[in-house]
Amino acid sequence: MAAALPTATPAPQATPQATPQPTAEPQPAFVTYTVQPGDTVASIAASFGIDQNYIIWNNPEVRADPNFLAVGEKLAVPSVNGIIYNVQLGDNLSDIASYWQIDAQSIAAFVPNGLGSADEIPEGAVLLLPGAQPPPPPIPAAVAAVEGTAPLEPQPEPAPAPAQPPSSTGYIWPWYGAITTYYGEPRGYGYYHLAIDIDGYGSYGAPVVAAASGTVVLASWNDWGLGYHVIIQHDDGSRTVYAHLSDIWVTQGQYVGQGEAIGGLGCTGYCTGTHLHFELWINGAPVDPLAYLQ
Q1: Which residue among 32, 70, 217, 255 is buried most deeply as judged by most CB within 10 Å?
Q2: Are 81 and 50 spatial neighbours (Cβ–Cβ below 8 Å)?
């Protein structure tokens, strides 16, 4: 009888390894969208699943004519219905939420904001405020007089305008030039231009100076609206905004003196020509800078 052949031992089989799954990218708070041929505010909003008003509200320059978008224009598009907000020096969530009339916890709980605690928010951060809507802007008296109708009932006396600041602590011109857009000019959708635009043709990069002494509470950039911009809080609590700068020469938290250069004149962000967009806020409300500049 023939001897039995040895049985081959099966080779050990490798344990199958689970195929690694790609990690989902975190949802951004907002994206910067470049306008394509044929785009409209409504079509962009529909493609992102948001209300078209949030494109208008988050892109101030679009308000001038929401029916016209320039190809290549940059727009800030929130991932959900909400307002994009730049955190300024001294801000806290409670104050931000109170101003925008939303719950502070909704800001902290919105994961793309990346906030570990409602008690601490990094200065200079850009947050999305879910569900926020811009408060109605004050209507300049001149516009109200033209558009208003006779009241049917006696109306309360309007609050007095803020007092003119003393000459020793007044506001100087941050840049001298012709006014190309005045405060209060209609911008569409019930909004008005809450700044003055000072022409800077042929002077790109020239120094823009602080209108008054104070602390830089924001020195930032966005490519959909103000471009390079600086916000200064002055010793009396008022604030000034300098936008479309070619460059920023100060840092957040820095104290600057009146007349100190803070950046170069430019045309960054949504801008159609070299100029300075200049705002003045007193008691938390915008006012016409021409009434205060010396």
Answers
A1: 217
A2: yes
